[in-house]
Structure formats: structure tokens, C-alpha cells
């Protein structure tokens, strides 16, 4: 009774009760939908990143970190609503996510409206840090240009003819546009581009058009594929026997489940964002050990990305000394931070995380159930001439 009276008297006298000192981080991600496997990896990685960066305390500057999960369902309108709910009703200080590029693009204006930081991870489309960008957006995930430049380095040799094949939405279109631009700086020739709806299951007509574009050309012939989620066309195109025309398939890195199909392609080259055996640093060593112990599997493609986002958030909060948005922006522009991939740097001009990429060649080991992306060469930050695409 005395406590209730004290609370009532405090309210009557116009004094505010002490607010919770928790730091609220909203993870707005595509927990359900076609990319839910990626989403689970991203969330697991985020929690591991927060744990690692805080030494297991989940505290920064003496305040407890609370993670609020929101399911954007791979739907742009839902993602927009969930982020508004996180910033408005839940009073989140920072948000992280989502997986799908289309969802991310719908969420960007919400961050600007609420004047709160959104760390985009792992959505890839260039436009996130390009024409759709605003100053509240930071991205730890690699963008389409980083994928494209690294794959152009891997494939862009003299005498190579390339046809590209991608999904007909933001991720695929942006990815091919960036690859086209990057390939223009190499001796290789881009012959044609093909796009298919994301739900395509019959690739026969697409395959025939691509084979016809390449079959009569001299030199090496490659079909470079950018694909996310289900219905990956690699095996189905290979079943059409492109080898009879001297055509080989090529693609970037992927999650371990997708890498199972890569066993059909020994020697295939490309460039990857992450494979757990490639980076050699203490953060990755910890991630691999802890992930094996807790989940019984190695960390995957997007686990490393989620961990990077968590580590970036903690480093920004430490450096800013508060959750004030302007203090965080000042702290994060040009900020260097550790990740399972090694050092990343938020570029001041567009807040894109600059990072190394990995040129690989697929190795097949009968004792491993997936094709192994064996490192050919690390492509360092200094060699990644990533265009600044925002207009602000």
C-alpha cells in the first residue's frame, strides 16, 4: 500500500519514475518465408555476436541489451510495419535486418522517419546503400557490387565469354547490374543476360537460350548464376549438359545446404562472402568452435553476417557512449570493427561495410557432403573498388 501511494504521489507531483536502462535492439527479419533458412542463421549469428562482443554479459556501458524479434515474413509491407512497431511501440534504440532486399528497401524510409539506426544485414541489393539510402542506414552485409567485383576478379580473364542468369527481382537485377559494371574493367566479354521469376522450376527454355548465345563462340564459355533461396537452377542446368558446347557454370558462394549441389562442379570458380574454413582470426575461431558445440554444425554464410552486425552494434554503442542516434552516426562513420571475416570498415559516404572477399575453386572431398570452396586468394578491401551509388 505504501509503495502504491508513493507511486501515485510521484505521478501527481509530475515527477517521472526511473525508466528502464535497457538497450533495445530490434531484429526485424524474414523469420518465415522462402528465405527462413538464411534468417535463422542471421539471428543465431546476431546473438553470438552480441555475446562475443560483450564478453558474455550482454551489457554495454553498464546497460543490459534486450533483443526484440519481429517477423517481416519476406513481405515488404509487413517489414515496414514491423520496423515502425519496433521503433514506435517498443522504443527500440537500434534495429537490424532483414534478409530480403525488397523488404529492406521498404524499411529504409521508416528508419529515416523515426530517426533511428537500421543496420541492414544481410540484404544485398546495391540500392540499399545506393539510391534508396538515407543517413540512418548502415550495412554490415556485403552489397551486390562487392559480390560482383569479387566474381569479376575470379572470372574476368582474357578469352572468357559470359552469360548471366538471375532472379527477376531486386537482388538479381542489382547483382547483374553490378557484375556487368565490374566485368567491364576486365578482358572478359558479357554476351547476354537472362532473368527468371523467383518461383521458376522449369529452366529448359532459359537454358536453351543461354546455350545458343554461347555455343558458337571461341574461348572459355561460362554461365554465371546469381540465385537466392529455393529452386536454385544449378543442377537442372547441368542436367541439360552444357558441357557438350564447352560451357561451364559459375556462381558465387552460398550456404552449406546449397553447396551440396556444388559437388557436381569440381574446379568451378567464383567468389564468396564467407566459408567457415577460410578466415583465420580469433573471432572466427571462436565462432566455429562455439557453433559446433551448440548446434553440431559449422557456422554458415549468414551466421557470420549476423555476428558481424551484432559486433558492429556493440562497438558503436561503446564508442558513442549512449543510444543517441546522432552520437551513434558520428561513432559509426569510418568505424573499424572486428568480425568473423576480420576487419570491416563503415565507409562514411554511404555507410557500407568495406570487407574482404574470397576467390575460391570448388574441391570435392568424398568425406564432406558439400563442395568445398577452397581459397585461391583473399581479395582485400584495398582491391575492392566499390562504387558509391547514393545521390545524397
From TrEMBL:
Residues 23-363 form the Leucine-binding protein domain. GO terms for biological process: amino acid transport. It comes from the Bacteria. Coiled coil: none annotated. Keywords: Amino-acid transport, Signal, Transport. InterPro entries: BCAA_transport, Leu-bd, Peripla_BP_I. CDD domains: PBP1_SBP-like. Residues 1-21 form the signal peptide. Pfam families: Peripla_BP_6 (PF13458). Belongs to the leucine-binding protein family. This is Amino acid/amide ABC transporter substrate-binding protein, HAAT family.
Amino acid at each position: 500500500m505504501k509503495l502504491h501511494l508513493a507511486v501515485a504521489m510521484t505521478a501527481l507531483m509530475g515527477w517521472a519514475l526511473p525508466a528502464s536502462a535497457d538497450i533495445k535492439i530490434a531484429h526485424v527479419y524474414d523469420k518465415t518465408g522462402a528465405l527462413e533458412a538464411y534468417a535463422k542463421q542471421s539471428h543465431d549469428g546476431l546473438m553470438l555476436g552480441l555475446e562475443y562482443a560483450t564478453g558474455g554479459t550482454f551489457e554495454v556501458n553498464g546497460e543490459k541489451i534486450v533483443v526484440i524479434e519481429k517477423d517481416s515474413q519476406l513481405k515488404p509491407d509487413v517489414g515496414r510495419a514491423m520496423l515502425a512497431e519496433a521503433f514506435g511501440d517498443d522504443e527500440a534504440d537500434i534495429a537490424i535486418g532483414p534478409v530480403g532486399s525488397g523488404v529492406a528497401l521498404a524499411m529504409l524510409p521508416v528508419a529515416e522517419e523515426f530517426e533511428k539506426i537500421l543496420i541492414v544485414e544481410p540484404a544485398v541489393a546495391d540500392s540499399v546503400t545506393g539510391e534508396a539510402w538515407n543517413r540512418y542506414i548502415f550495412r554490415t552485409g556485403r552489397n551486390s557490387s562487392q559480390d560482383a567485383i569479387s566474381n569479376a576478379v575470379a572470372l574476368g580473364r582474357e578469352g572468357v565469354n559470359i552469360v548471366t542468369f538471375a532472379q527477376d527481382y531486386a537482388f538479381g537485377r542489382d547483382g547483374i547490374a553490378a557484375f556487368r559494371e565490374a566485368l567491364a574493367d576486365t578482358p572478359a566479354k558479357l554476351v547476354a543476360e537472362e532473368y527468371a521469376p523467383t518461383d521458376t522450376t522449369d529452366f529448359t527454355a532459359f537454358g536453351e537460350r543461354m546455350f545458343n548465345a554461347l555455343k558458337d563462340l571461341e574461348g572459355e564459355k561460362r554461365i554465371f548464376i546469381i540465385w537466392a533461396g529455393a529452386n536454385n537452377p544449378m543442377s537442372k542446368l547441368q542436367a541439360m549438359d552444357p558441357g557438350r558446347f564447352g560451357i561451364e557454370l559459375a556462381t558465387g558462394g552460398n550456404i552449406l545446404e546449397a553447396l551440396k549441389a556444388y559437388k557436381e562442379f569440381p574446379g568451378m570458380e567464383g567468389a564468396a562472402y564467407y566459408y567457415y574454413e577460410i578466415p583465420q582470426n580469433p573471432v572466427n575461431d571462436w565462432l566455429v568452435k562455439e557453433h559446433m558445440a551448440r548446434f553440431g554444425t559449422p557456422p554458415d554464410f549468414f551466421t557470420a553476417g549476423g555476428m558481424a552486425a551484432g559486433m558492429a552494434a556493440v562497438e558503436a554503442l561503446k564508442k558513442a557512449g549512449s543510444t543517441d542516434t546522432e552520437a551513434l552516426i558520428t561513432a559509426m562513420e569510418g568505424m573499424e570493427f572486428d568480425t568473423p571475416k576480420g576487419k570491416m570498415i563503415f565507409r562514411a559516404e554511404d555507410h557500407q561495410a568495406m570487407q574482404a572477399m574470397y576467390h575460391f575453386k570448388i574441391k570435392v572431398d568424398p568425406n564432406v557432403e558439400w563442395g568445398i570452396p577452397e581459397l585461391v586468394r583473399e581479395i582485400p578491401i584495398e582491391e575492392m573498388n566499390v562504387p558509391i551509388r547514393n545521390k545524397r
